[in-house]
């Protein structure tokens, strides 16, 4: 089902990173993790990635520190991915509630999911649907 | 001549209007700060609870082995530790803001074995520290046994919780947090050092790192989420106990030094002595 696909998770909160990585690995996906934006950019340049999840409030990392504000690092990454890797599917998974930021992300064609408040199963189904092209139900009874 | 033609009155009305406008702006500013504070509090408290929900979903819906399950349970424990720690801090914030509310902090004074307290706290925060492969150690040969200090235990516990949590948050991966304690006979006081290796504290921030809401530029850049309340609360509590707290970075280590006098609050009218609790 996973067909050797690779997912890059960009998040510095271990508490959210681990359960999502576990669940994806259990389904057979190769999971890469980046805790800062510069780390993510290096991985994107060297690895074949099929899907990326991006947190918003994130350490830009030493290379980007002077040009990116940590409160909107993810927005920078969303634009970066859209511009340089238009074929990679992207989701934004974050706790931000600022509607203007969310609109800017969705205007890039990137789906925004509220971290933690969106059930893990729903997040997984959405990622899986995008990776396989098959729709999955989020109904817990199934 | 009517009153409105009197230049004195016209001037006074103008001044009052300006003052009124200024006060309205100030109220709006305070309301904005209050809203931001409540949003921040809400976000900080909800985040670990949501993380716990994801961990539980992961455990119930993904087949994981016993070893992995143990690791997930440790993560749940560390998120619960954070949630409790933050809830205590937000509760204390309101009391520490005014002298009037300080009276509500009337906790019985107890003899506190600082070594035991710090070992318990280190154990509490160790699961959280493991996420970054950090070890928290209370140095056995560099932590003097006794004497115990007479203080308000829950508050002193929160002082060290806040400093340890701060050290875990800003430490580099795969480093050690070392806790030492020394009794100073000449001043009849106990000095606790908590050392970590991570974001250095610039010399110009050594004082303001304890100011309400302050976070260094580097801390904000690397870890955008945070309240800047923990060290402020620690300092206020230490001051109530007539002790002192300081911080500085030297040779790659950031050291927080807490000095508490052994009998600091004994005999002070506002406080009463209590029996040492078995959990101390």
Q: Could you characterize the architecture of this molecule?
A:
- The complex is a heterodimer of chains A (142) and B (280).
- Chain A has helices spanning 14-26, 37-46, 73-84, 99-107, 120-132, and strands spanning 6-10, 30-34, 51-54, 89-94, 111-114.
- Chain A is of the alpha/beta class and 142 residues long.
- Chain A has one domain: Response regulator (Rossmann fold, 3-Layer(aba) Sandwich), CATH 3.40.50.
- Chain B is an alpha+beta fold and 280 residues long.
- Chain B folds into two domains: 8-101, Helix Hairpins (Orthogonal Bundle); 108-261, Histidine kinase-like ATPase, C-terminal domain (Heat Shock Protein 90).
- In chain B, 51% of the residues lie in helices and 18% in strands.
- Chain B has helices at residues 7-61, 66-96, 99-102, 114-130, 153-170, 217-222, 230-240, and strands spanning 109-112, 135-143, 149-152, 176-184, 189-196, 244-250, 253-261.
- In chain B, a hairpin with a 4-residue loop joins strand 4 and strand 5 (189-196).
- The longest helix of chain B is centred in the first third of the chain and has 55 residues, at 7-61.
- Mean pLDDT of chain B is 85; it is low at 272-280.
- Chain A binds chain B through residues 12-16, 18-20, 22-23, 26, 57-60, 65, 70-71, 73, 95, 97, 115-117, 119-121, and chain B through 39, 43, 46-51, 53-55, 57-58, 61-64, 68, 72, 75, 78-79, 131-132, 220-225.
């Amino acid at each position: 089902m996973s067909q050797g696909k690779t997912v890059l998770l960009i998040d510095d909160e271990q508490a959210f990173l681990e359960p999502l990585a576990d669940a994806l690995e259990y389904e057979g996906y190769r999971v890469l993790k980046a805790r800062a934006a510069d780390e993510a950019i290096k991985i994107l340049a060297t690895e074949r990635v099929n899907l990326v999840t991006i947190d918003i409030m994130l350490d830009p990392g030493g290379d980007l520190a002077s040009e990116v504000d940590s409160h909107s690092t993810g927005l920078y990454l969303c634009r970066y991915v859209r511009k340089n890797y238009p074929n990679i599917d992207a989701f934004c998974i974050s706790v931000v509630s600022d509607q203007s930021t969310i609109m800017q992300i969705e205007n890039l064609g990137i789906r925004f999911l509220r971290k933690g408040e969106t059930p893990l199963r729903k997040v997984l189904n959405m990622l899986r649907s995008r990776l396989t092209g098959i729709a999955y139900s989020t109904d817990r009874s199934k | 001549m009517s009153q409105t033609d009197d230049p004195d009155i016209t001037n006074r009305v103008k001044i009052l209007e300006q003052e009124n406008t200024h006060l309205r702006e100030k109220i709006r500013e305070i309301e904005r700060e209050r809203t931001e504070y409540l949003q921040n509090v809400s976000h900080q408290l909800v985040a670990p609870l949501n993380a716990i929900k994801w961990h539980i979903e992961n455990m119930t819906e993904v087949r994981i082995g016993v070893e992995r399950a143990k690791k997930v349970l440790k993560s749940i424990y560390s998120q619960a530790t954070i949630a409790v720690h933050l809830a205590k801090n937000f509760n204390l914030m309101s009391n520490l803001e005014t002298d009037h509310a300080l009276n509500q902090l009337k906790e019985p004074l107890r003899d506190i074995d600082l070594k035991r307290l710090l070992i318990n706290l280190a154990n509490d925060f160790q699961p959280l520290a493991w996420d970054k492969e950090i070890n928290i150690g209370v140095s056995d040969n560099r932590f003097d046994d006794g004497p115990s200090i007479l203080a308000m235990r829950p508050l002193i516990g929160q002082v060290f919780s806040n400093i340890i949590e701060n050290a875990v948050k800003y430490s580099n991966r795969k480093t050690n947090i070392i806790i030492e304690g020394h009794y100073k006979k000449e001043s009849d006081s106990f000095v606790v050092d908590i050392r970590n290796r991570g974001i250095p504290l610039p010399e110009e921030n050594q004082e303001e790192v304890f100011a309400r809401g302050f976070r260094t530029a580097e801390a904000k850049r690397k870890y955008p989420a945070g309240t800047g309340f923990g060290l402020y609360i620690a300092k206020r509590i230490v001051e109530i106990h007539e002790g002192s707290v300081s911080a500085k970075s030297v040779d790659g280590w950031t050291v927080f030094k807490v000095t508490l006098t052994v009998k600091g609050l004994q005999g002070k009218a506002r406080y009463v002595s209590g029996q040492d609790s078995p959990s101390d």
